[in-house]
Amino acid sequence: MEKINKIRFKLNKIYYNLFIDKYNKSINFNFPENVNRWDLIMKIIKFYNFKSYLEIGCDDDYSFKKIDVPDKTGVDPYSGGNFKGTSDEFFLQNKKKFDCIFIDGLHEYDQVCKDLDNSLNCINEGGIIFLHDALPANVHQQAVPRYKIIWNGDVWKSIVYFRTRNDCDIVTCKIDHGVSIVRKIPNKDLLNININNFKNLKFEDFYNNYQRYLRVIDYDVIFNYLEK
To answer: DSSP states of 66-84 as a string?
Structure first.
């Protein structure tokens, strides 16, 4: 993880609240305390007997070390994983395809869109992509530039954009700050909204529409979705 700079955080907060967004309502998602992102990933890996795994953004291997598959690749420019570099650098040289991909890198709209596009290009048929930090509780957690320790970034805006595309199907599981599940199949529930620039969406848009925008489902019904 990038080192925390307290002075920069304070300046970012002032800038964000003055010029970008200061919506003051919050959402209590009541995430289950005993279910983490790696629990969902391993549950699906075991169910489908996946053999290969790619993780973008390993940090200190919190998730990466818990994933049990014969072939796994972890990408991080700072720590963890087994490929030292950015996701862009990894995908430029990558020749492999994977059964399962977990995206938890830089939580900013442009980068998430690139990571998701690149992942769709190297996922095996029938494979699944996971995307972390989809459900921020308040405007502070989703602010870009970042100014909070607990930070989801604006990952959610990327999901809204991909939900309007025909080439993938997405739901978001209500666990561990939100984990979106992306499959490279025709979109079964196309999000039809008229937005020119998804990056300019505000937290108020998320607050009022997150269930429809991100197609939120509970953990205990995840296989009902996957088996359809």
So the answer is: G---SEEEEEESSSSSSEE
Number of domains in the chain: 1
What angle is formed at CA 158 by the lines to CA 154 and CA 163, rounded to 5 degrees? 140
**Is residue 21 included in any domain, yes or no?**
yes
Is 122 among the domain residues? yes
Using CA atoms, how far residue 4 sits from 7, 68, 142, 158, in Å, is: 9, 31, 16, 25
Q: How many beta carbons lie within 10 A of that of residue 194, not counting itself?
A: 5
pLDDT in tens, 143-165: 999 999 999 999 999 999 999 99
Token pair, residue 111, equals: 């980068």
Start-end of H helices in 58-141: 87-93, 109-121
User: Is this model's pTM higher than 0.85 or not?
Assistant: yes
- Check: CB of residue 54 under 8 Å from CB of residue 101: yes
Q: Does residue 196 sit within a domain? A: yes
